[in-house]
Structures are given as C-alpha cells and as structure tokens.
Amino acid sequence: MTLQSRIRDVENQLEQACLRSGRLREDVQIIAVTKYVSVGTAEAVVQEGVTHIGENRWPNAKAKWDALKGQATFHYIGSLQTNKVKDVIGKFDYIHSLDRLSLAEAIHNRAQVLDIKVPCFLQVNVSGEQSKHGLAPEEVAPFLVELLRYDRIRPIGLMTMAPYESEPEETRPIFRALRQLRDELNQLSILNEPLMELSMGMSNDFEVAVEEGATRVRLGTVLVGKEEMEEG
Fold it and tell me: I need a labelling partner for 38 at 20 to 30 A (CA). Which of 119, 177, 179, 187 fits?
C-alpha cells in the first residue's frame, strides 16, 4: 500500500469511529509515529498533511526534527529518562510520558532555563502490567497535587497503552477506565484548568479508543508503514 492509501484508510476508519460514538472528526488528532521509518518518509507524511509526529528516542528523532522543525509538531511518546530531558525539552512540543516526580523536576528545571511551559500527559498504567511504565490509577490524584509545585509543567491530559489484543474490542475497558479517571480527576478540581486530553489508541486498537473518547491517537505501522531502521 502507498502512504496516501494508508492515510486515506485511517481517515475513513476514524470518521466511522467518530460517527458511531457521536463525536466530531476534528476532535481527534492523529500523531504519526515515525520511529520505524526514514526521514524521507516522515517528510512525506507531513507533506500529506499529517503534521503531528511522535518519536520515543532522541537519537533516532534528531534527524527528523532537524528536517521538519517549523513544519511539524513533535510529541515525545516514549519513557523519558531524566538525563535525556535536556535533549528533548524545547524541541518536543508535548511530552506523553510524565510518570514520576524526579522527571517532573527535571522537566521543570529545563523549562525554567528555556523560559517555556511544557504541556504534559500523565502516563497511567491502567492495565497494571509490570512491563509498562506509568502511574497506577490511584496514584494520579496525589501526583497532580505534587505537580502544583512545578509551574513550568502544564498537565493537559492522560496517556495509556493498552495490552496488544488480537481482538481490539478487548481493549475497551482500558480506554474507558482512562476516560473515567480523567473525568473523576476533573471533578476534584486539583488544577486550575481541567484535563481535556486522552492520548490512547495505536495501530491495532485506535477505533475502540476513539469510541471511548481518545483525543490523540498514536499511529505507526497502520499509517506510515515500517522500514528497516538502524539504531541511532
């Protein structure tokens, strides 16, 4: 399949999922996950109008960022080590993986140096899998209280990764639980502004995620394909 046909198919699936759930298509943002494709493919994706790019390692992302800065919005979607914050903050527009106070402090300090505010998603391990990063659902409210100390961080929503299931419908409880958690947190009014965003859904399960309220879907293979890439 060509890139254009994959984008067309994804758009059709998104529109149908929005229709089924009574949502507007413009309320869902596609993030093209380009970690397994070349700079040229990432550039082609942006030229096709998909201008939000997701990467999970700075060494692999650097060439794409250099090629596309000013043309694309960059999302850091992987686990972020505190010693890599200096490379990422100021280049990536959104962080999707804030899950501990040591990372919050590092992001805050770097943002202070750059005189910026950093929009962040809190990563939540809804499924409880030991292999996944993220806060346990019951840890999120206390974590938000602690985040009030870091005025360079702007919490905008929650992120989760569902287990890979051969039947995507089986991921629905995970996505529903994240939406319900966000709504419960907003009722607590911990922050000055409500958490509006839900970053959830990937190539295998994004339609279910959209039906459950996803505002950002992170799409790799289904959208951009996969190429053999050397580790940076």
Answer: 119
Residue 231, domain member (yes or no): no
112 assigned to some structural domain: yes
What are the DSSP calls for 29-88, one per residue? EEEEE-TTS-HHHHHHHHHTT--EEEES-HHHHHHHHHHHBTTBEEEE-S---GGGHHHH
Residue 58 lies in a domain: yes
φ, ψ at 165 (rounded to 5°): -125, 140
Answer whether residue 59 is part of any domain.
Answer: yes
- The model carries a pTM of 0.95
Which sign, positive or negative, has the C-alpha torsion 85, 57, 79, 74? positive
Q: Summarize the confidence of residues 123-145 as an average pLDDT.
A: 94
User: Does 232 have pLDDT greater than 50?
Assistant: no
Position 1 scores a pLDDT of 86
pLDDT in tens, 5-38: 999 999 999 999 999 999 999 999 999 999 999 9
Q: How many domains does the chain have?
A: 1
Domain extent at residue 25: 3-224
Burial of 39 (0-12, 13-18, 19+ CB in 10 A): middle
The yes-or-no verdict on residue 117 having pLDDT over 60 is: yes
What CATH number is associated with residue 151?
A: 3.20.20.10
- What is residue 231's predicted lDDT score, i.e. its pLDDT? 44
Question: What is the Cα–Cα distance from 112 to 131, expressed in whole angstroms?
Answer: 32
